[in-house]
Amino acid sequence: MNIIIKELERCKLDVSCMLESDIIESKKTDIINKLKERKVSGFRQGKATDEAVKVKFKKEIDEELKGALSNEAYSNFLSEKNIKPFGNPTLVNITLTPNNFSCNFVIHTFPDFTLGTYKGF
Prior knowledge:
Elements: E1 2-9, E2 12-19, H1 21-35, H2 50-56, H3 58-81, E3 90-96, E4 101-108
Antiparallel strand pairs: 1-2, 2-4, 3-4
Helix pairs in contact: 1-3
């Protein structure tokens, strides 16, 4: 996973994440297996082929895949960079091609500071 971070303002970051194709394919197969349980014309329920599910639920697969991959990118970003977010991220751009996934989001963070020692209380 490639992560590019730009600081827009103090405590406001613009993050670009790009995921590899193996992660995309594993998430896509999970979504297809979940959608196999739905009714597909010409097949018994739960017995449809992968190709039939891909054709029937193309829009649903793409939307669910974008959501799952953006959540994956966000959680990987937080764990790798050890950043404390403030609120939810704002998705700016999501691009999904057969072999690439990239997303941009803006995140607010807590400021880093340390309290000094107080004397004379």
